[in-house]
Each structure stands twice: as structure tokens, then as C-alpha cells.
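hi!! sorry for the late reply, been swamped w classes. u asked for the two structures so here they r. pasted raw, havent cleaned anything up. first the sequence of the first protein and right below it the C-alpha cells
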Amino acid sequence: MKKFGCATTPTNLTTSFGIPRTPILFFLRTKIRRTTATAFSPRRRFRSTPPIPLEAHAGWLPGDDGPAEEAEPDPLGLSGVDREIAAAKSESIPDALPVDTPDSALEAQLRAMEPENWTPPAKQLAESNIPLLPPAEITDETLVPILWELLHNLSLRGFYVLHTDHLSDRKLYAELWERGLRDPAYLPGRNPRGGWFHDFLGSWGDEEMQLWLRHYACDEKRAKHAKDWPKDTIPPKEKPPGNRDWRLPKGPF
């Protein structure tokens, strides 16, 4: 039976395994039926997948390459100058860095700073042929120049004294002779970064604190000490017997 140029054919077909197919109606023309059969043929449906490029195993896939970068215009010709500068820098850099050679003077200075290498200032003065007379052999007429000469020689070796105004000239020389120049010390010389400072207030105990309040502390510091330590006795302020601290050789501080 034909209708509108199409064939209507009820069919009951079976597969190659004998399984019956569901009846279908074919309303397709012969040409369309051939095209459909070609598109869905088993040979076309199960065609093998194209091989993956070897580059894909290394993380590259087609289309990953970006567009080629265009060279920037260089109307002034600075690229050549940049290359010359880079070449000059590479020539100025040495292939191997110089090896630091040991500084014998610095090593000797570091060894001298160790406490076990300290020596008494009196010994250092004797090695420099600077006489150090006993206090009993010095007369009152020669005491002052001898004392100041000693203080000057000590400052040239980096030895400075502090808080000496409460001592007389003879007492100060005796203190240096008996103790100040007998204790081991490190004398760095005229060094702008440090020195050896001998404070005649000692360890700043109770007695030394009373001397400081009496002879050295100003009114403001005396008032502050009385506020911070109300149990301490504040002695009356007195003029010290000596007047030399402002003339003493000063250290770097």
C-alpha cells in the first residue's frame, strides 16, 4: 500500500541470533534509508579512536602553544646598548672570589682581650721604660707633675680614671700604686670604641654611695635618690677636696 509516496510495511524481523525485533514502521524513502544505514553501520560506529600524540604524555596538548610574540619596536637602538652593558658586567665579575687572608694584627688583638691574657698596667709601663716610683719616694713638690704624667701615660694606653675628686693627690697616687695598677687589665690604646675605666668609687657599696651623694651628685639626683630609697640617709652636700676630674684625660664615652 502506498501513501504520499511512502511505503508502509509492517515487519516482524529477527536478529542474527534469532531474537525477534520490535515491529517498526518505515516511512523513509529509499535514498534516506540508505543514508541512515550508512551513518549507523557497525563499521562506522566502532571505528578506532585516533592515536594520542606523543607530546601529550609530556603534558603538551595540541593548541597549548601560544601565539608567537612579536619583537617590540626599538627605534632608538637601545637593545644593542643593553647587550654591551650585560657583556661589561659579566667581564667585571671575577670567576673566583678572593680568599680572605688571616689578619695577624686582628688575631693578636682578639687574643689580648681574653681575660687570661690581661696584664697589670704597672708591668706594661715598666716594659715601656716608664718609671713608677713608690709613693714614699715622692716629695710634695714633685708629686703633682709625677701624678699628671702618670695619668697622661695611662690614657695613651686606654686606661682612664673616674671619680677622683674626693681623694687628695697623694691618696690618688697611692691608690694607683697599691691597687689600680696592680690588677690585670686590658689596655687597648687610644681606641675610639672603648677603653679600661678605673672607677675610684669602687663597687658602689653603701660607703661609696655616700661619697657620691656627698661630693658628686647634683641636687636633682640627690632628690631622686631620696625618693627612690627613703630609708637611706642623705648626707649634706660638700665640696670635694680635689678639683681634677674635669681636667682628666677622657675616654671615648
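now the second protein. again sequence first, C-alpha cells right under
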Amino acid sequence: MSFEVYGYLFIAVGLFILWGVLAKPTFFWSSRIAERTRKLLGEAGTMILYLILGAALVVVGIFSVVGVINLMN
């Protein structure tokens, strides 16, 4: 199995998180973890945290796919 798969997985998960934050589907935004995070950080803080997390995963995935970083080393 090629290690590029992990990069594509990071990209997919990052895009899913970004979509979840922007579209706010019930199953995503009302999950236990999201509700706890919203209680702790508030609505805006949770959105910012998830946007940063999603964007970071996408960037790391892209860097992995193009060979800038190696996720398995």
C-alpha cells in the first residue's frame, strides 16, 4: 500500500470537517464532542477551532501527496 493513501485520507477528513463546520448538518454539529466543545469555547470558538483543524489536515495531506513531507517517517 502506498503511503500517499494517508495523504489522501488527511485531505478527505479535512474537507469533511470543513464541510461540517460550514454546512452545520445535525449529525455533525449536534454530536457529543461538538456540543462539549461549543460549551467550552462557544459557537464562534468552536467554528474557528474546527476550521483550523480541517485546514491543517488538508494542508498536511496535500504536502504529503506532493512529497514535501513524509507521514510515515
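hope this helps!! also noticed smth abt the second:
Residues 4-66 form one domain.
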